[in-house]
Structure formats: structure tokens, C-alpha cells
Amino acid sequence: MPSNTVPSDAPNHVVAFPGGYTRSVGPVIGRFLSELRDGRMVGVRTAGGRVLVPPQECDPETGEDVTDEFVEVGPAGTVTTWSWVPRPAKEHPFDRPFAWALIRPDGADTALLHALDLGVFEPGAKPPKFLKTGMRVRPKYRAERTGTIGDIECFLPEVTMINPQAALEYRLKGGQALGRFLEGIAEGRILGHRCPVCDKVIVPMKGFCTRDGVPTSEEVELPDTGTVTTFAVNNIPDPRAPEVPFVSAYVLLDGAGLTMLTLVAGIPADQVRMGMRVKAAWRPREEWDRSMANIKWFEPIDEPDVPFEEIKDFM
């Protein structure tokens, strides 16, 4: 009895056309391919007014011949549906994950199938969250075109977001109060102003009391020790911080009536706590200038934590 099983070593049957297969495309498809060669996309209008892309010789809904009116469409279009390819085959247009998509060019009533390049992904990756029906795309034409659908290398998402590298350099010129405060920092001293109304010591100096709105002029030198009142753990790199994550905290200097924002280091970020006692870590004296950079950060000291009740009004 003959077997219907194909032997594993049976040769593949390949139909090949050495030199290519030449065929006539006709005036409708020929116009479409000629426009692609010139970097444009056109559709053809049916007797009912619809615009077909890619063009066809007859209306697929009615079977009637299309008109001889060609309409330029796109170049942008909308994804109507898609299929993700996590592991491309060697015959595919990309060697990394991509999507096949039906794309309806602007001005068209039908969609064409083409490859959608969404960026570089590892083999087997899941489709990105931004890949969705309705996303806007544009064609990427090849530099050298020959009049085939392959003249469109692929479609790319329209640009909706950018991440420019930006930097803003500026020089801060302090007023009389801030200038005096920075003079003190350049000498290794932390100076504040005492308010004549509430008797609170304001540091850094501002020249007025933010609570009472009155001018301040009485200088008070404060120690470089204080208490953490509240803090935040940061996971975005900062050139001033020793590592990531790092802690930025409001520190109430001993004798001050307002907190000061600074960095806290010398302890793992997850061990910083409210009420922790800290001390300024000064840079070497030869590096000092009129800048708060003279203090690298505040570090914990071996003193008991301050009870919450004593710092609750400074949160």
C-alpha cells in the first residue's frame, strides 16, 4: 500500500523565474507605481466617489470600472488594524520585531498593507504599548526607487514627543541679604536674620520675615547641626549627589525658625528618617567660594532622634 508520508529528505520544490517575471500592470496600477517611484501616493476614484488605495481596475463592491480620476492621498495615514511579529523570518523586511499593519492614507477610503517599524526590540518582545489602532504613521521612502510597492521601505509613527538635551546656564547675583549670607558661607559660617516681631531666626537670610512681612537686619550665627524634619528619596541622577538613590531633606538648624533644603548623605537612603540629627559636611577649605556648594550635604551624627512633637510645626 503506497504511503502518503513525504520523506524527510525529500527536496523542496521551487518555482523560479531566472531573470525575473515580466508582466503588464495596466494604466491604473501603473500610475500608482509610477507615483510611488516619484515619492507620491495616489488612489483612484470609483463611480460611487470612493478613493481606492492601492488602486484597482474595478470597484470591489459593485464590479464597475473605476473612473480615470486619480487622487493624491497621504502621505500620512491611520492604522486600522495590525499584527505584531515578535520573531521575524528571513523573508521578512526586518530582522527584529515589527508589525504588519493595514494603513488608510489620508483622503483614501481603503487601506494598504505594509510593514510598520516601531524601533529596536529584542527578539520575542511583546508589542509596545503605543502600538494601537488609530495611531498616525507616515511612509519612509527609499532613496533609490524603481516603481514597486517596495519603494516604500516601511511606515513610521508620526512624531508626537521629543526628548531634547537642554541646559540652562545662568549666574545668580544675590541681593544684600543673600550676598551677606554667602559671605558667611565663604568663611565657614551659617548666618541668619532674627525677626523683630516673632523672634524667629531666618536662614538663609532674606532681608525680611516671610511670616510677619517686616524687614530683618539682626545677624545671628547658627551652628552647622540640625534635625531632619521631612525628606524625599530621589531616583533621578543629580551631579551634586554622591549616588542614586539620594535624599533631599528639609533640615531645621539648631536655633533656626525656618527649615533649609539640602542633601543628606553618609547613610543609606532607606535609613533616613524624620527627627534624625545631622551635621554639615564641608568641602576642603581650599575649595570654598561664595556658594552653598561649600557644604556638600548633611550627614548623620551620633545623637538621639528629636521627638516628632518638637518638629511637627516645621513640616
Automatic annotation (TrEMBL):
**Highest rank taxon of the organism:** Bacteria
Give every ChsH2 C-terminal OB-fold domain span: 71-140, 219-283
Q: What Pfam families would the database entry show?
A: OB_ChsH2_C (PF01796)
Q: Can you say what this protein is called? A: OB-fold domain-containing protein
Question: Can you name the source organism?
Answer: Actinomadura monticuli
